[in-house]
Write a structure and sequence with these properties.
single chain; 397 residues; alpha+beta; FAD/NAD(P)-binding domain; 9-stranded mixed sheet; 6-stranded mixed sheet; 32% helix; FAD; oxidoreductase activity; FAD-dep_OxRdtase; FAD/NAD-bd_sf
Amino acid sequence: MVQKIGVIGGGIVGLAIAHKLQGKFPGAKVMLFEKEAQIGMHQSGRNSGVLHCGLYYEPGSLKAKLAVEGIRQMTAFCETHKIPHEICGKIVVASNDRETKFLDNLHKRGTANGLSGLKYLSQQELKEREPFVVAKEALLVPEEGIVDYKAVMNQLASMILANGGEIILNTEINEVKETKDQLILTDGKGEWLVDKLVSCAGLHSDRVFEKFTKQPRPLRIVPFRGEYLMLKPEAEKLVNHLIYPVPDPEYPFLGVHFTRMMTGAREVGPNAVFALKREGYTNRDISIKDTLESATYIGFLNFLRKNFSFSMGEFYSSLSTSAFLKKARKLVPDIGENDFVKGSAGVRAQAMDKSGKLLMDFNVIKDGRQVHVLNAPSPGATASLAIADYILKEYLN
């Protein structure tokens, strides 16, 4: 009998897993289910297109291990399939003495994670690379880059179909029934029998886990919207490559940074605003169910208590261009309000525990014939092929 394996979620991690399953089980029938009309409609298709190499992550963490392997696999994949990408490097900027200490810690962490070529730039070297950046210290991370993740996803989808797999769009699996030997998946209209199931439900991963396994959620997804501005064409000369601030350990998110995209456009952002809907890309997107679920979660209340001033500052920068501009000017002081136009927005599936702690590492749970990717935050896209290898090795022997 041909083995049948179901994958839920047509983001980049789901596509990578479906593709790798075909390599490991060449005789199996792989079926990928996506609730939207197209693949990659949410987190995977709305990110900045950065290839992250593992600078920030706790040495020894799953994220650190898979980020380093992930960028190498993703770069090789892009080279093989002629997908637009560029290893252009990035700089991380410290603006004062306090931040230089954080930058030193980042340097040590990146070295421990196996990154090569990390280098502090002299002021002359900085000016040659990014003439408009002002910094107390700047660390060059040469292995970082940019890529067209939509092209990556389209390539993965083409390969899945070419190898006999199915990508079933407009289909939201809402129930799983277990028999002695198989799982029955249904969307209320049709049914599919599978021997194994891998769920990569992104913004809905916790709900899907609870619904399918009948087990309580071990974490909660709280949505945060990241809003971007774009530099006008005449202002693009202000940014050559990738420019990031040093993350402040007192605050939970990375902060406003500058990204040169594969199109040549320059993106500025994001902020991190509590979203009133799990797929809420504007402040007009509201779901009473999603809002109440997050707002009454003890973990989110604890997060607000610990990070109230930060949260209010992010909310204010969503309403005020001048507040957003102030953050950008910390890196590139010459930027003016007239240099921007409104950009895109994405929603980050932020996993959080009851204490209000943000859960930053990858999280995968197996329950019988089901495997659930509960948390795959950045660098989930970069590391997607390595994440797939890890899941196949550890959970789908």
